[in-house]
Specification:
Layout (H helix, E strand, L loop, with lengths): L12 E4 L7 E4 L4 E3 L11 H23 L6 E12 L7 E12 L3 H15 L1 H8 L10
Antiparallel strand pairs: 1-2, 2-3, 4-5
């Protein structure tokens, strides 16, 4: 039997910003997004991206959880909405994430709850990372 090496997706992002304007972000795989900061501007600001990362991870993790529970064939869809409560004092930070999940399909409430909790507390890399209080390693290049 031939051994297969699992493919690892490159991860990471680089933001560039001039003296004026807004950040432009490029992912390690070449995806691009421009950041906005105006309250009425359509698009993503940095906090939106944080919420979006958690939202997407939870939705994908719920689908994985449904598979682990053997009910994927009965799952119709998952919606994960994420907002947060920002701290009123310094330093700027999110104090609490507000997560609302909608799991549709031929599933009882107990199964929906099991899917949601497995996704949020065990499968989702983003939520697991946020809960773990990861360290930071800053390098300043010349």
């Amino acid at each position: 039997m031939a051994e297969t090496t699992p493919r690892v997706r490159p991860t990471g992002a680089t933001s560039t910003l001039g003296r004026t304007g807004f950040p432009h972000i490029v992912s390690a795989t070449g995806g691009e997004i421009d950041i906005v900061t105006g309250a009425s501007q359509p698009g993503f600001n940095p906090i939106d991206l944080l919420y979006a990362s958690l939202s997407a991870c939870l939705a994908m993790s719920a689908r994985i959880a449904a598979g682990k529970l053997g009910v994927l064939d009965r799952l119709e869809g998952v919606e994960a909405a994420v907002t947060g409560v920002k701290a009123p004092d310094e330093p700027s930070r999110v104090l609490r994430f507000e997560i609302t999940m909608r799991i549709t399909g031929d599933l009882d409430q107990q199964t929906r709850a099991a899917i949601a909790h497995m996704a949020e507390d065990g499968i989702c890399t983003v939520s697991n990372t946020m809960k773990a209080n990861p360290g930071f390693a800053l390098t300043l290049e010349e």
